[in-house]
Amino acid sequence: MNIDHIAIVVHDVEKAASKYKNILQVDKIQFETVDTEGVKLAILKLNNGRIELMQPLKLDSPIQKFLDKNGEGLHHIALQTNNLDNTIKNMKNNCAIKFLGDVRTGSENTKIIFAHPKSLHGVLLELCSYRD
User: Fold this and answer.
1) 117 is in which domain, residue-wise?
2) Helix, strand, or coil (residue 64)
3) What CATH number does residue 77 fall under?
């Protein structure tokens, strides 16, 4: 597995993207709306991964609830796997990892699923796959 991205929740994705672009000297930012997650993203591609800035689009979304409770900041870390189904099966059977919901479509047409933070010492982990 590789680190795919780090996700940061923000109030205003356009404003945050501008700041991150200047700080990290990123040439291009890709904006995307992910309806399944109820977020607008700014994707900053780095040499060895991505940073996703997330702005909630719905007042009742989990991302908005996170933002209300915790404020802006780190939301999750995403790992890329070549075989999402096998990774999920292994984590469930051998590591007793609990997952939040089912596999669904994420940014850049990936397949994603989230592992419950209680399973991983308080860290929300996303597994994603560009293949499968």
Assistant:
1) 2-129
2) helix
3) 3.10.180.10
